[in-house]
Amino acid sequence: MVLSSVLGFPRIGAKRELKKATESYWAGKSSVEDLLKVGKELRAHNWKLQKDAGVDLIASNDFSYYDQILDASLLFNVIPERYQKYSLPQIDTLFAMGRGLQRPATDSTPAVDVPALEMVKWFDSNYHYVRPTFSHSTTFKLNGQKPVDEYLEAKELGIETRPVLIGPVSYLVLGKADKDSLDLEPISLLEKLLPVYAEVLQKLLDAGAKSIQIDEPVLVLDLDEKVKAAFKTAYSVLAEKVPAAKLILATYFGDVRPNLDAVKGLPVAGVHFDFVRVPEQLDAAVEALSAEQILSVGIIDGRNIWKADLNKAVKFVESAIAKVGKERVIVATSSSLLHTPVDLENETKLDAEIKDWFAFATQKLSEVVIVTKAVNGEDVKAELEANAKSISARASSSITNDAAVQKRVAELGEKDTKRASAFAARLEAQKSLNLPLFPTTTIGSFPQTKEIRVQRQKLNKGEITAEQYEKFIEKEIQDAIKFQEEVGLDVYVHGEPERNDMVQYFGEQLKGFAFTQNGWVQSYGSRYVRPPIIVGDVSRPSPMTVKESKYAQSVSPKPMKGMLTGPVTILRWSFPRNDVSQKVQAQQLAFALRDEVNDLEAAGVTVIQVDEPAIREGLPLREGEERSAYVQWAPESFRIATSGVKDSTQIHSHFCYSDLDPAHIKALDADVVSIEFSKKDDSNYIQNFSDYPNHIGLGLFDIHSPRVPPQSEFEKRIADILAVYPKENLWINPDCGLKTRQWDECRKQLTNMVNAAKVFREKYA
Ligand SMILES: CN1c2c(nc(N)[nH]c2=O)NC[C@@H]1CNc1ccc(C(=O)N[C@@H](CCC(=O)N[C@@H](CCC(=O)N[C@@H](CCC(=O)O)C(=O)O)C(=O)O)C(=O)O)cc1
Ligand SMILES: N[C@@H](CCS)C(=O)O
Ligand SMILES: [Zn+2]
User: Fold this and answer.
1) Residue 327, Cα to own-chain centre: how many angstroms?
2) Which residues pair with 333 in a beta bridge?
3) CA dist 463 → 235, 347, 458, 703 (Å)
4) Of the four listed, 97, 200, 406, 510, which is most buried by Cβ atoms within 10 Å?
């Protein structure tokens, strides 16, 4: 009989219970026991939901208080000395590594001052993981037994689960060398790490685990021979040490074919493939498996919210069964459902026609079960018929097509993708901005305080009028400008108080989008997003940011940056259509933004920033045609959005959370770029952008952390940068926006940053 399986379920809770409990604990408003209780309740709820839906193989250890990769670092005791030395309770060490910790000494405890570990994008998603950080002195030992505890916790509730672990090769490859050990190749630590994996597997076996999901997502990346060979070493050692462990090796988000030689012959019970992304890999996958190995067929999309075409999915699974037989097939989600919102039932305001097209995590459980039942010969005729109706209703809906938008994209020409002059001429024209050497600025957002969110909630509930809300926002903008005057910045921002989120805000104003009330997805730690959904051709019915930017410009004579999110980032951080290419969706967004950029300029805004932090995450995971096409169309859509302005209008862009390729940044032809930098320990990274021909600001402090770097630390960073970059090109700014900080924190951070800039300005005056 074919079994159904789910690779992981969102842990945040349908009402964001985990966020509320975690932030309350951080604020000292509740105890660790309160937090742990919420965690336990969420796990129980999620397991029961899956069991009741009829899922056979339910994941455990998919829960985390911050990030599952950080959990693995704690489990293997990969805790750099700078955190170990404080001997904090385990959960506080976890949070210190995730978000940094700075607190004064008390009578009984010493002062703590430690920055966070680096946080980077999880493959091509908007989830961020905390990068394991290794040094020559790293040793591994089992620290607690979270996977075993959670397996037993489920068992006590009468629910048999399949524990999930990140695999040893991926765990190392996704990590990095610490700043004191830059010559270390993490994969060289494999043999030291494996005994600890074996210990966890043995403990899981002893606890009764029948099979274990071991995630090796790096198998969808381009891997060098050393890493490929590591799979054989790793899984042979584990099979030898724990022969009874039944491992299902899970890959997701891409094509495993180029690495199948590394998978072939591994002593594992089965392999999971993402056939939503790459259905074409079925034959090769089957061919790579031995006659006993299980094929886990990832056929329900873990990365998007569209209802699956169940009839098509059934056919696909049947074709897999025809190749390997029923006994060897499992029906599964393509990846963990972590990347999808929890429950569509909580959406009461969605247009009924559109709502019928979606499936969130909870609905996807039923999808997996229906497909499984169908291939097992159970009667699901009614469900399959209802599904076919929804699929064909969407395909023929008038909501998806807009002839005027399609015509504009079809007529796209070179004139739409190039600034009027080259950078040198633009720089000359931009002298009218009268900027000093080392201009200081921020990236856009200022603290999104509780007060702002409450006012927005009141507006949404109709408890205040649009005029009252507008007045409130104007006051926030005034305060942000006053703050920037006091701190002494050079180029101001309005602070983005009117935005719930830098993508959702635009989605809500653009035609062709749907948005949710409760469709939260974890982005990192306790920070969540509600990705808007692109349901049809996109256009801009009216200006989106001009009112606020114009108001801000009227309050101060200083240059004020207009602030937009770029086409690629809006696309990447939304749930995209699956019936139109990403390129066309980006071009449609780009034209909508071009109109906005031009309107801002017409309103007197002379500096306009168009953020593209997701441009790197959109890069196809492997080298090849798709990637070559992306590096053309992604920067081109940025240029469509920004090239309609005069030479004297200064275009900025901003990037964060990724290891960028300088060539991709150059292709945007922005006048000024700001790049997250402060957590890049590798001193060679500083060189990466040294031939960036236009102006650049390398982020000087980590905005995720409340930590305030002293002025001397800023000076040291600026001096390091100046050793590589011409002083005329350099801007002084933080890593990213300050929306997650408190005002008093960013006052201290920015004051030290501005004072450090002044030291250098005087030095070179
Ligand atoms: C810059 N980043 C972003 C990414 N993706 C995005 N889509 N947006 C980004 O900004 N990816 C990379 C990075 C890092 N990621 C994030 C993601 C999310 C946040 C963040 O701060 N999220 C907020 C939620 C923002 C939001 O939508 N707020 C709404 C709703 C606020 C709310 O909770 N209201 C309450 C009522 C008021 C109250 O009592 O507080 C309610 O509804 O119950 C809004 O402001 O209106 C988060 O808190 O998680 C940062 C970086
Ligand atoms: N302008 C945005 C960019 C975030 S990536 C902000 O400051 O929050
Ligand atoms: Zn950013």
Assistant:
1) 37
2) 300
3) 60, 21, 5, 33
4) 97
The pLDDT of 177-182, averaged and rounded, is 91
Please indicate, yes or no, if residue 10 is contained in any of the structural domains.
Answer: yes
162 and 58 in contact (C-beta within 8 Å)? Answer: yes
- Does residue 136 have an active-site annotation? no
User: What's phi and psi for 587, nearest 5 deg?
Assistant: -65, -40
Domain containing 340 equals 3-80+117-396
Q: What are phi and psi of 545, to 5 degrees?
A: -130, 0
Q: How many Å is the Cα radius of gyration of the chain?
A: 26
Determine which residue's CA is closest to atom 8 belonging to ligand 2: 737
Q: What is the ipTM of this complex?
A: 0.98
Round to whole Å and give the CA distance between 454 and 53: 36
Q: What is the residue with the minimal CA distance to atom 20 of ligand 1?
A: 527
* Interval between CA 652 and ligand 3 midpoint (Å): 13
Opening angle at CA 642, ends 636 and 647, nearest 5: 120
* Residue 533 phi, psi dihedral angles, 5° rounding: -115, 125
Tell whether pTM > 0.90.
yes
In a domain, 624, yes or no: no
Of 323, 358, 327, 331, give the one whose Cα is nearest residue 344.
358
Rounded distance between C-alpha atoms, residue 422 and residue 419, angstroms? 7
Mean pLDDT of the 578-604 span: 97
Give nearest CA residue, ligand 2 atom 7: 737
Residues touching ligand 2 (Cβ under 6 Å) are: 443-445, 502, 563, 611, 613, 654, 656, 736-737, 739
Which tokens in the block code for residue 590? 């780009």
Alpha carbon of 673 to ligand 2 centroid (Å): 13
Beta bridge partners of 331: 4, 297
Q: What is the pLDDT of residues 220-243, one digit of tens each?
A: 999 999 999 999 999 999 999 999
Backbone angles phi, psi at 381, to 5 degrees: -60, -45
When divided into structural domains, the chain yields a total of 1
Q: How many CB atoms lie within 10 A of CB 428?
A: 12
Is residue 667, in this structure, part of any structural domain at all?
no
**Residue 685 predicted with pLDDT over 90:** no
Is 523 inside any structural domain?
no
Whichever domain contains 14, its CATH number is 3.20.20.210
Band of pLDDT at residue 497, cut at 50, 70 and 90? very high
